[in-house]
Amino acid sequence: MLNIGLQGGPEQAGFPAVAPVTPAPEASMSRIALLAALAAGLGALLALALRRRPLPAVPAVRDAGPGAMERPPRQWDIVDQRADESFPASDPPGGY
Fold it and tell me: How far is 90 from 56, CA to CA, in rounded Å?
C-alpha cells in the first residue's frame, strides 16, 4: 500500500521529482497578443452594436381642417372639425 500523507514531499510518496514548468517568454507574449486581438475584436463588435442608427422617416402630418386637405369634402361642420383636430389621439373631441 502506498502511503501519501501530508508529511514529506512527492519524492517520499514514491513520485519522481519534477522541476516546475515555466512558459517561455515567447509563449506568454503570444498569449498577450491573442488576448489583445480578442479584446479589439470584441470592442469592434460592441461599437457596431451600439452605433447610432438613423431614425425611420416620420410621415408628414397635416394641419387640421379642410384647408390643409388635398381633396376637402363638400360639407364640413363643427363635428368634423373637432374630430379632425383630435386625430390621431384616442380621446374623443371635447366640444360638447
Answer: 23
